[in-house]
Each structure stands twice: as C-alpha cells, then as structure tokens.
C-alpha cells in the first residue's frame, strides 16, 4: 500500500479516526447516489461508476483505521443542521450527497498524505471522477427528459407571457424556450429568471433562444441556436457537457451538419410559412419526411403548426412538434396544450404497437 509515515502517540489514532470517518461518509454518500442511478434512472453505467468507487474506497479502509473508531466519544455524532432534516426533491437529495462525497474525499486526500501517499493520489483522482459523475447525472436527467418531451413551446413577447406559460405547464408542457429578439437585456434577464423558476416548479426543461450568456446567467437547461448563431462546439465549451444544445435546420444538409457538430436536438422547419420566421421559405412536409427517415437524434417539426394542420404533420412522420402562436395566442392555453399532447401521445402509442408487430412478424417461428 506504500510507505506509511510515523506518527506521534496522540496524532496517529486521530488521523486513523479521520480517515475511517470520511471513508464511511464517502461510501455512504456514493451508495445513496448509486441507488438512484440504479432504480431511478435505470442507468447501469452510472450505477457501476458509483459501485466501482465504493469498492475502491473499501480497499483502502484498513483494519487499523477501524480499530481506532470511537463512536461513543465522537462529539460530531450530536451535530446536525436543519437543512439535513428534509430534502425538497430527489435533485436536492442527490446534490447534498454528492457534496458530502466531495468534501469527504478532499479530507481523505489531505489526511492520507500523513498515512499513505499512494492512497492520497488515488483519492485525488477519484474526487475528479465524482465531479464528472455530478455533471453526467445532470446531463443524463436532462437528456432523458428531452427524449420524453414531445411538445415544445417557444414563447413570443405577449403581454400575458407568464400566465400563458404557466397555463401550458399546467397542461403538461415539459420543455419551454424563451425567445424575445427585441427586449432590453435587463428585461430578458428578469423574464428568463422568472420563467426558469416556473419551469423548475413544474419540472420542465428551460431553454434560452440564441443567448449562451443569458442561459448561463439564469442556469438554464440549455440553449437553442439558429444557423447564424455561434458554432455548437463553442457553445458546448462555454455551457459544458451537462446542458442541452439545439439547432434550427431548414434542409437535410443543415440537419447533417448539426448532428455532426453534436447538437442534442434539432428543429425541422419551417413546415409552413409563419410570421415568426418572416421571409423564410417553408421547408414543407418533404423535409419532415426526410427527418423521420434519417435523423438519429430528437427533432421537433416547427413552423406554423396548429390544431388544424397537426394531423398532416404527424402523418408525415413527426412525433415531436414545436409551437408558438398555437399556444401563446390561444384563449385556453391549458386545453390547447393538452390537445397537442393527447395527439402526440396517441401517435406514439400507435407507432409503438406497429413497431412491436413488425418485430414479432420478423421473428421466425420456433
């Protein structure tokens, strides 16, 4: 295990007790995170990462450390904090325990320098692994939510912005993009902060249009970029791997480029001409059909889609749509949102049944 440094009569047991307590603390925290990765996210990869780190820590947890344990005389067992008595959400619980693991690993890294230099080096590397795990967990949650989202609302600068958005969220909306090309930055920041809070309350993804800086400022879930905005790679460097990046596309070439550059999703359109994209020629249903056959990442048909033409868009192969006026200008945004979701869920169910039937038909009789 490497060379151990000699310790004074009173110092050595204290160092062992510190190492013992923080090995326990790190392992416990990792187990809590592991359980959610396993049962909450159904992610074998993330659960295995946690398990591997727990087992590595167990290998460093020597009998001499355990022998110095004195729980009865530990003044820390009576210390508590009101924030530890309850958790507001699973995310809050995971964040608290990841912080607990990171703090424990930092203590282990420093105090193991007095015990075993190899242990200190190994713990240092593990601490970086936990930072990566923290980002991966957040990215995984966001991407799973993106996969489950089939109706995407893009805002327009209406007077009733907040009431319309909340009505849509109450109707089941799970992804919202804040888009305002004309407002002052101070107003956009204020509106984005409020919309972000609303999306958190309803467990919906919050995306900012164009502005990577604004997305960072309000801790948005991601950013949506147009063809004239900064490259996806640069946005990824700024935002990090845990946030979602979308790109508008109008033809197969733009679609392929966005995929190659690492977009998490794309917009496909405009399906119909729309005042939201004044002067933009409609891509039409042919591009929707192309995306249905060729796009390997989530994509949303967008552009003039409303309740009257939704069916033809779905028949062309779309199972995700983005809307603006259909909800933002609706008299009853909640009901309109629910209508869109019901139709999208129905087409999803039908395609799932058809796919399963096709799979069963393809299997040879035994």
TrEMBL record:
2-[(2R,5Z)-2-carboxy-4-methylthiazol-5(2H)-ylidene]ethyl phosphate binds at residues 274-276, 304. InterPro entries: Aldolase_TIM, ThiamineP_synth_sf, ThiamineP_synth_TenI, ThiD2, TMP_synthase, TMP_synthase_cyanobac_bac. Its EC number is 2.5.1.3. The keyword ATP-binding does not apply. The keyword Transferase applies. 4-amino-2-methyl-5-(diphosphooxymethyl)pyrimidine binds at residues 177-181, 209, 248, 277. SUPFAM superfamilies: Thiamin phosphate synthase (SSF51391). Mg(2+) binds at residues 210, 229. Its cofactor is Mg(2+). It comes from the Bacteria. Pathway: Cofactor biosynthesis; thiamine diphosphate biosynthesis; thiamine phosphate from 4-amino-2-methyl-5-diphosphomethylpyrimidine and 4-methyl-5-(2-phosphoethyl)-thiazole: step 1/1. Pfam families: ThiD2, TMP-TENI. Residues 151-327 form the Thiamine phosphate synthase/TenI domain. It is an enzyme of class 2 (transferase). Residues 130-366 are annotated as: Thiamine-phosphate synthase. Keywords: Magnesium, Metal-binding, Thiamine biosynthesis, Transferase. GO terms for cellular component: cytoplasm. It catalyses: 2-[(2R,5Z)-2-carboxy-4-methylthiazol-5(2H)-ylidene]ethyl phosphate + 4-amino-2-methyl-5-(diphosphooxymethyl)pyrimidine + 2 H(+) = thiamine phosphate + CO2 + diphosphate; 2-(2-carboxy-4-methylthiazol-5-yl)ethyl phosphate + 4-amino-2-methyl-5-(diphosphooxymethyl)pyrimidine + 2 H(+) = thiamine phosphate + CO2 + diphosphate; 4-methyl-5-(2-phosphooxyethyl)-thiazole + 4-amino-2-methyl-5-(diphosphooxymethyl)pyrimidine + H(+) = thiamine phosphate + diphosphate. GO terms for molecular function: magnesium ion binding; thiamine-phosphate diphosphorylase activity. CDD domains: TMP_TenI. Binds 1 Mg(2+) ion per subunit. GO terms for biological process: thiamine biosynthetic process; thiamine diphosphate biosynthetic process. NCBIfam families: PRK02615.1, thiE. HAMAP family: TMP_synthase, TMP_synthase_cyanobact. Belongs to the thiamine-phosphate synthase family. This is Thiamine-phosphate synthase. It comes from Merismopedia glauca CCAP 1448/3. The gene is thiE.
């Amino acid at each position: 295990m490497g060379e151990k440094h000699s310790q004074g009569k009173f110092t050595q047991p204290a160092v062992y007790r510190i190492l013992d307590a923080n090995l326990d603390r790190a392992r416990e925290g990792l187990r809590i995170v592991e359980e959610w990765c396993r049962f909450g996210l159904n992610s074998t990869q993330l659960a295995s990462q946690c398990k591997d780190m727990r087992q590595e820590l167990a290998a460093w947890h020597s009998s001499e450390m355990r022998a110095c344990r004195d729980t009865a005389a530990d003044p820390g067992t009576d210390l508590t904090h009101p924030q530890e008595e309850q958790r507001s959400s699973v995310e809050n619980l995971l964040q608290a325990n990841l912080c607990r693991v990171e703090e424990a690993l930092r203590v282990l890294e420093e105090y193991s320098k007095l015990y075993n230099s190899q242990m200190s080096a190994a713990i240092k590397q593990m601490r970086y692994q936990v930072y990566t795990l923290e980002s991966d967990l957040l990215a995984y949650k966001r991407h799973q939510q993106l996969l489950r989202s089939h109706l995407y609302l893009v805002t327009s600068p209406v007077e009733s912005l907040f009431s319309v958005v909340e009505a849509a969220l109450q109707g089941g909306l799970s992804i919202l993009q804040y888009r305002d090309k004309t407002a002052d930055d101070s107003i956009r920041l204020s509106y984005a902060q409020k919309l972000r809070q609303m999306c958190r309350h309803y467990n919906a993804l919050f995306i900012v249009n164009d502005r990577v800086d604004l997305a960072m400022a309000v801790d948005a879930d991601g950013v949506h970029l147009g063809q004239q905005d900064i490259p996806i790679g640069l946005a990824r460097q700024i935002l990090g791997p845990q946030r979602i990046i979308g790109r508008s596309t109008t033809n197969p070439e733009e679609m392929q480029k966005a995929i190659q550059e690492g977009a998490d999703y794309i917009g496909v359109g405009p399906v119909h001409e729309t005042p939201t994209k004044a002067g933009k020629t409609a891509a039409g249903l042919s591009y929707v059909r192309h995306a249905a056959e060729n796009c390997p990442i989530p994509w949303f048909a967008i552009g003039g889609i409303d309740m009257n033409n939704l069916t033809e868009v779905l028949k062309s192969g779309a199972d995700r749509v983005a809307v603006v006026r259909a909800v933002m200008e609706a008299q009853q945004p909640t009901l309109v949102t629910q209508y869109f979701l019901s139709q999208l869920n129905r087409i999803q169910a039908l395609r799932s049944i058809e796919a399963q039937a096709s799979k069963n038909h393809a299997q040879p009789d035994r």
